[in-house]
Amino acid sequence: MGSYEHNIKVINDHRHRGYLEGEIDGMLWFAIVHEEPVETGIDPETMKRGMGRVTRLCIYQDSSTVDGNPYLPSMSIKRIVYVNYQRDWSIFHYDFRSMARELVWYLERRCCMHLLK
User: Fold this and answer.
1) For the chain, which terminal residue's Cβ has fewer other Cβ atoms within 10 angstroms, N or C?
2) What's the predicted TM-score (pTM) here?
3) Nearest-CA neighbor of 93 among 108, 80, 105?
């Protein structure tokens, strides 16, 4: 994987804690990435639970709407989760397979680059 098919951006980088937030093709994501592979991580080859650095991954989209009358407005926020991994897959939407795989590869490589510095 030399170049990436999806537009991946890191917004918040809390590297010392392993927590990362970002965007991928206009959707939001967050992940917990360890310095060394762990048993509960996502195996980047199989995308199943195995030896990997990413132990938490969520790809989602938030939308908000303002309802009610102008004198007493109410706001509702809706979060649609497309991919969710926390020690195992709880949500893995078929249409987002390639996006999730590419993000896992990106996070694995990004961690390795920081270790080399």
Assistant:
1) C
2) 0.83
3) 80
